[in-house]
Structure formats: structure tokens, C-alpha cells
Specification:
Elements (H helix, E strand, L loop, with lengths): L1 H47 L1 H6 L2 H26 L1 H12 L6 H7 L1 H4 L6 H12 L3 H4 L2 E2 L5 E2 L3 E7 L5 E7 L3 H10 L1 H11 L5 H15 L2 H14 L6 E2 L12 E5 L6 H4 L4 H22 L1 E3 L7 E5 L2 E4 L5 E3 L2 H16 L3 H11 L10 H8 L12 E3 L1 H11 L20 H13 L2 E3 L37
Parallel strand pairs: 5-9
Antiparallel strand pairs: 1-3, 2-3, 3-4, 4-6, 7-10, 8-9, 11-12
Length: about 475
């Protein structure tokens, strides 16, 4: 009898595994087809307009191209916003990387940052009840069924706790784990998309890092731990805010934190330049201070993850995609910056690139050529003084990063440990360029209140280059 029961149990487990595999296979096929259909529609849209483009001239041709790009962006935003998951994350990146997109196209794609189609109120309530054991109306004193933001893995609701605290409750989409598993299993499609977006990079390393980080993001307990770390470190900081986690209302699929207020990025872009500069300096400082002081990097620096309160005060949201580093992993980055920006020693810079695994040791390239093509990634800190990061500079960084015709393309690669840090080159500079932000990026600010003249230094200022001469950016 025991053998019979054991056999039945094993048989049931195998059957369930087979059914799950089939369901994931069907889901992967559906999502793959949706992505392919999106690409086909774009191609047909341009093919159908080829004759008009050929016949048009001057301003008329440019207007036609702009119209086609906007129609394609609308299609991308609607399709990927509805699909969510990994494919939407790729769309989010496209929304804030300035690759020559028109402002209208970028505004359309920016809907992927926090304004995608939400799940129904009933589905959200079901997840809350499954996780907390009570429907939201009983788990909280007040619950707003309308989400205030919706993104790739979950959506955010306002609520009031039973003890009267205003909170933001992020609720994971039901079935999103299967959706992401299907996307990650669709290796062929992801390879094609990554080869388009990162043609000069090691696609296998990109896929491995993407898989690890996204699977971590599915467990909101990990996100809560990341946010607790950041909130504790920046507690009391005058310009950097991280909402506190409400632990008793956070689980694997729900994370509850203090409700933060502030303007969204689109509103900040219309503020006076001085305000934009202060906000940009805070974002820059937060990025590098977290990396070198806490040894943690939030790999999702898109504009939807910031709230702005004026005077350089910024609240940082969403800590699901965080990578933690060992000191030994960060040391090579510090050496590269020191050799190029402090010591002005090109040969030592080259040697440090080789030792870290960025450059093939036997690359038949002159060091002069190497510096010429790599220097753009360090331009913000190579010289002291105030410097404006423009959209053109952000675009130049992106173009250089993706330049398959570069003489370096065949000989450089990004070690897996540093893959996620390329979101600095692709994301952070895009955000700062959108703000046309100016600051002395090299200098370690002595003060970081409303302006750099308001208060004495504190322990958590942004990290310095060896010798105390500025912050350390990322290599490509």
C-alpha cells in the first residue's frame, strides 16, 4: 500500500510538472508571437510608406518619418505595456535611453515607466487576501482600489494602516512568475532582442545576469531587504529619501512602505534649471554613494523610480533590481578611474582594463586608440569644474557603447559581474541628459543640503577617487 501511495504521489508530481511545462510552453509561444508580430507590424508600417518617403522631400519627409516613429512607439507602448514581464523591461530601457528618438516618441514610450494597463481591482484584492489572510478592506483601515502606478511586475495602491499610517502597497501581478519564466525560456527571442540592443556585448553573460536579477525581483521579500538597507543608510539625509518598509505588511508578493509624495520626472523637466541641477546632483550622488559605500547598485535608474520635492530633495523608489558587490569586485573600477583621471597614466589604465576582464590582453590596438574610444565614459570626471551633461552627450555615450564598427568592438567585453552597472552608462546619463544637468561631477561635494553651500560634510558623501579627488564612474 505504501508503495502504491508513493507511486501515486510521484506520478501526480510528474503529471503536474508535465502540465506546467506544457502551459509554460504555450505561454512562451504566445508571448514570442506577440513580440514577433510587433516587429512585423513595424516593418510593414515602414514598408507601406516607402513610396511616400521616397517621393517626399525636405521637411515633408522628416514629418512623415516622425509620424511613423510615433505610430510605432504607440504600438510598442501598448503591446509591451499589456505583456509586462521581461519584454516590458526592455521597452522601459528604450523609453529613457536617448538614441536619437524625438521628444514625442520618448514621451509615448515613457508610459512604460509607471502608467501601463493595471490589473483589475478584484485581482489585486485576491493577491492581498492570499498573502495577508484578509481582504484589503480588513487588512487596512482604508484601501484605494485604483492603483497610483503600474509597472512590469506589480502595481501600487494607496492605503491607510490600522494604526493610521499612510502607505504604498505594491502588489505583484498574479501569474507574473509564469510569464517571466516563459520570457526567460524564450532564449532565441531574447538573444535577438539583446543583439539588437547590445550588439557588441556578450549576449550569454547578459542573459545570465538578466535571469538572475529578474528572478530575484519576483521575491518582494528580497526587495524589502534591499530597501531596508538603503533606508537605514540614508535615514536623516537632507536630500536623499528612501521610504521605510512596513515589515508586518510585506510578504513574497506584497511590499508595503511609507507613502511618499512628490513630482514625477515629467514635471521636474519643466522646473527651473537650478532645480533640475540640484535634483540631478542628488541622483548622481545616490548612485555612486550606494555603490561604493554600501556596495549595492540599484539597477533600475529609470525616471519612474524618482519623486521630486524641490531643493534637490529626491525620494528613491523600487529596489527590486539591486545587485550587491564584494570589495574585490569594486577595486578594479577604482583603479581604472584613478589611472585615467588622477594619475593620467594610459598604460596603467590599459593594464587595469585587461586585469578586470574588459579588454583582451592580446588586442592589437594602440593605447592611444583605446583611450580615444573609452574616454567618453569618463568625460564627466576627467577634469575638475562645472560641466553640463546634455542629451547629445548621453546619446554619444549610448552610440559609443553600441558601436559595432568601433575598432574596440572585437576585443572588449563586459564581465558578468559588471553587466548591470552598464545601466549607469545607458540609464543614469540618459536621465541627467534629459535634465541638461550641470554640476562639478568630479568633485566630492563638501555639503549636500539644498545646495552645496548649506552644511558641513557628513560620512555618507559620495565616494571619492583615491586622493579625495572626485567620484568614480563606470567603464563601458
Amino acid at each position: 500500500m505504501k508503495r502504491l501511495i508513493a507511486g501515486a504521489a510521484v506520478g501526480g508530481t510528474v503529471t503536474a510538472a508535465v502540465l506546467l511545462h506544457r502551459r509554460l510552453g504555450r505561454l512562451r509561444l504566445r508571448r514570442g508571437l506577440s513580440a514577433i508580430q510587433l516587429l512585423v507590424r513595424g516593418g510593414m508600417r515602414y514598408a507601406g510608406s516607402a513610396s511616400r518617403l521616397f517621393a517626399a522631400a525636405g521637411e515633408n519627409r522628416q514629418q512623415l518619418r516622425s509620424d511613423l516613429a510615433l505610430q510605432t512607439a504607440e504600438d510598442v507602448a501598448a503591446t509591451l505595456g499589456a505583456m509586462k514581464g521581461v519584454l516590458m523591461k526592455i521597452g522601459q530601457m528604450a523609453s529613457y535611453i536617448d538614441g536619437g528618438l524625438s521628444p514625442a516618441v520618448r514621451r509615448t514610450l515613457s508610459r512604460l515607466q509607471d502608467s501601463v494597463p493595471p490589473m483589475s481591482a478584484e485581482l489585486a484584492a485576491r493577491v492581498v487576501e492570499e498573502e495577508l489572510g484578509l481582504p484589503p478592506e480588513r487588512a487596512f483601515a482604508r484601501w484605494d482600489p485604483e492603483p497610483i502606478a503600474a509597472a512590469s511586475i506589480g502595481q501600487v495602491h494607496r492605503a491607510i494602516t490600522l494604526d493610521g499610517r499612510a502607505v504604498a502597497v505594491k502588489v505583484q501581478y498574479p501569474g507574473i512568475a509564469e510569464t517571466i519564466a516563459a520570457d526567460l525560456a524564450n532564449v532565441a527571442l531574447l538573444r535577438r532582442m539583446l543583439r539588437i540592443t547590445a550588439p557588441a556585448q556578450d549576449v550569454d553573460a547578459l542573459l545570465a545576469e538578466l535571469r538572475e536579477r529578474v528572478l530575484e525581483e519576483l521575491d518582494y521579500r528580497q526587495e524589502a531587504d534591499n530597501q531596508r538597507l538603503m533606508a537605514a543608510y540614508y535615514d536623516g539625509h537632507p536630500t536623499i529619501g528612501v521610504p521605510q518598509i512596513i515589515s508586518e505588511l510585506s510578504t513574497r508578493r506584497i511590499v508595503t512602505s511609507e507613502l511618499a509624495g512628490g513630482a514625477r520626472f515629467a514635471e521636474l523637466a519643466s522646473w527651473p534649471q537650478e532645480e533640475r541641477d540640484l535634483a540631478a546632483e542628488t541622483i548622481y550622488r545616490f548612485t555612486f554613494r550606494s555603490l561604493y559605500d554600501i556596495r549595492a547598485f540599484n539597477g533600475d535608474p529609470h525616471p519612474g523610480n524618482y519623486l521630486f520635492q524641490g531643493g534637490g530633495r529626491v525620494t528613491f523608489l523600487d529596489f527590486g533590481l539591486v545587485k550587491h558587490f564584494a570589495p574585490a569586485e569594486l577595486q578594479p573600477l577604482m583603479q581604472m578611474a584613478r589611472h585615467l583621471c588622477v594619475d593620467n597614466d594610459p598604460e596603467a589604465f590599459r593594464a587595469s582594463l585587461e586585469q578586470a576582464g574588459f579588454l583582451r590582453p592580446d588586442a592589437p590596438l594602440s593605447t592611444e586608440t583605446l583611450i580615444e574610444h573609452m574616454a567618453v565614459f569618463y568625460d564627466t570626471i576627467r577634469k575638475p569644474g562645472r560641466l553640463t551633461i546634455t542629451g547629445d552627450y548621453a546619446s554619444a555615450v549610448v552610440r559609443r557603447f553600441f558601436d559595432v564598427r568601433s575598432p574596440l568592438a572585437e576585443y572588449v567585453s563586459i564581465p558578468r559581474s559588471y553587466v548591470i552597472l552598464q545601466r549607469i552608462n545607458l540609464g543614469l546619463f540618459a536621465v541627467l541628459g534629459e535634465l541638461t544637468a550641470a554640476a562639478d561631477w568630479r568633485a566630492s561635494p563638501r555639503k549636500s543640503g539644498r545646495s552645496s553651500r548649506d552644511r558641513p560634510p557628513r560620512r555618507s558623501e559620495q565616494p571619492r577617487l583615491p586622493g579625495g579627488r572626485g567620484v568614480i564612474p563606470m567603464p563601458p
